[in-house]
Backbone:
C-alpha cells in the first residue's frame, strides 16, 4: 500500500518533495546556460549574442516599465535575461516620481497591455503624462526621454508601448508632434492570432534580422497604422521607416506596417509580441514539426536588438 507524506513535509535535504539524491531547484533564468547542452535548440547562449556572460557588469542594462494597466512585463524581463542583459522591472510611478534615472540604462522598453485602461485611446493617457505632467525637476519626462535618445539610448515599444510612442510623437519622429496613429482594426474586431511579418533589409531596422520572415503573435484592437497626411507618408516611405511588414495584413495597417522606427533606428515600435515567442514550444505548430521545431522568432529578434544596443550605445 502506497502512503503519501503530508503536503509540505521536508526530507533530509530540506526541500519539500525532493529526494535526497535530487539536486535542489534553481532559477532557470539565473543559470540559462546550465540548463542545456552547448548549442542546444532551446539554449539562449547569451555569450554568443552579446559577448558577455549573463549579468556581466558590461552587459546592457534594460529598463522594463510596468504598472498602471501595462502587462507582459514578466515575459519581457525573462526575454532580456535570456539575451544576457541586466534588466530591471520598474513601476512607471517610480519613474514619474524621479526615483529612476534613464541615464542608468541603455535601453528603455515600453511593454504591452492597456495603460490607464486605454481611456482616450490606446496609450494616450500615458503619453500625455510623459509629455505634460511636471516632475520634481519641474520638467515633463519627455525632456528626459529626448535627452536619453540624444545621448545614444534606445527605446523599444511593443503593442501598447508602440501606441504610446506614436502618441508621444517619437515615432516616426519626422516632425514635431504626433504624425501617425494606431487606430481601431479595420474589421472592428480584437485580433488575437499568429502572423507572419518580414524585416525590410533596407530599413534602419535591418539590424533586427535583414530580410528575415518572423512568425509572431498579435493581440490588439487598435493596431491599424494611419498617417497624418501625404507629406508624412512620402517621407516615411522614402526613409523606409516601416521596417517590419505583415505578409498578410490582419488589421488594415497602412503599407502592411507591423513595426516602425525613427530615422536613427533607435526608437522602435511594433504590434506583434516578440516576448511571447521565447521557445519553439510557444508556437502553436511546434508539435507538428517534430525534430524541426520552429525557431523562437521573438527571442531571435530581441537577441539581435540587444546585440545592436551593446555595440552602439
Residues:
Amino acid at each position: 500500500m502506497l502512503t503519501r507524506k503530508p503536503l509540505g513535509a521536508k526530507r533530509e535535504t530540506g526541500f519539500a518533495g525532493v529526494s535526497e539524491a535530487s539536486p535542489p531547484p534553481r532559477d532557470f533564468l539565473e543559470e540559462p546556460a546550465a540548463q542545456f547542452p552547448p548549442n542546444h535548440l532551446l539554449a539562449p547562449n547569451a555569450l554568443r549574442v552579446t559577448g558577455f556572460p549573463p549579468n556581466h557588469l558590461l552587459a546592457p542594462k534594460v529598463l522594463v516599465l510596468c504598472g498602471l494597466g501595462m502587462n507582459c512585463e514578466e515575459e519581457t524581463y525573462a526575454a532580456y535575461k535570456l539575451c544576457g542583459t541586466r534588466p530591471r522591472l520598474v513601476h512607471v510611478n517610480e519613474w514619474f516620481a524621479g526615483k529612476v534615472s534613464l541615464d542608468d540604462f541603455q535601453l528603455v522598453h515600453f511593454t504591452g497591455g492597456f495603460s490607464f485602461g486605454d481611456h482616450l485611446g490606446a496609450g494616450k493617457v500615458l503619453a500625455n503624462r510623459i509629455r505634460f505632467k511636471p516632475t520634481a525637476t519641474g520638467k515633463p519626462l519627455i525632456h528626459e526621454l529626448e535627452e536619453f535618445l540624444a545621448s545614444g539610448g534606445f527605446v523599444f515599444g511593443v503593442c501598447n508601448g508602440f501606441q504610446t510612442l506614436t502618441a508621444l510623437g517619437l515615432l516616426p519622429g519626422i516632425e514635431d508632434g504626433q504624425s501617425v496613429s494606431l487606430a481601431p482594426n479595420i474589421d472592428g474586431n480584437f485580433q488575437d492570432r499568429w502572423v507572419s511579418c518580414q524585416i525590410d533589409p533596407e530599413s534602419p531596422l535591418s539590424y533586427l534580422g535583414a530580410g528575415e520572415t518572423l512568425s509572431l503573435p498579435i493581440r490588439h484592437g487598435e493596431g491599424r497604422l494611419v498617417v497624418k497626411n501625404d507629406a508624412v507618408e512620402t517621407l516615411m516611405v522614402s526613409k523606409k521607416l516601416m521596417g517590419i511588414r505583415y505578409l498578410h495584413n490582419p488589421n488594415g495597417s497602412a503599407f502592411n506596417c507591423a513595426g516602425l522606427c525613427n530615422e536613427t533606428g533607435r526608437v522602435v515600435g511594433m504590434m506583434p509580441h516578440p516576448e511571447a515567442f521565447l521557445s519553439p514550444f510557444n508556437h502553436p505548430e511546434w508539435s507538428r514539426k517534430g525534430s524541426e521545431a520552429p525557431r523562437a522568432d521573438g527571442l531571435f529578434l530581441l537577441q539581435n536588438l540587444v546585440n545592436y544596443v551593446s555595440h552602439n550605445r
User: Anything to note?
Assistant: Residues 1-51 have pLDDT under 50 and may be disordered. The first strand starts at residue 61 and ends at 66. The first helix runs from residue 46 to 50.
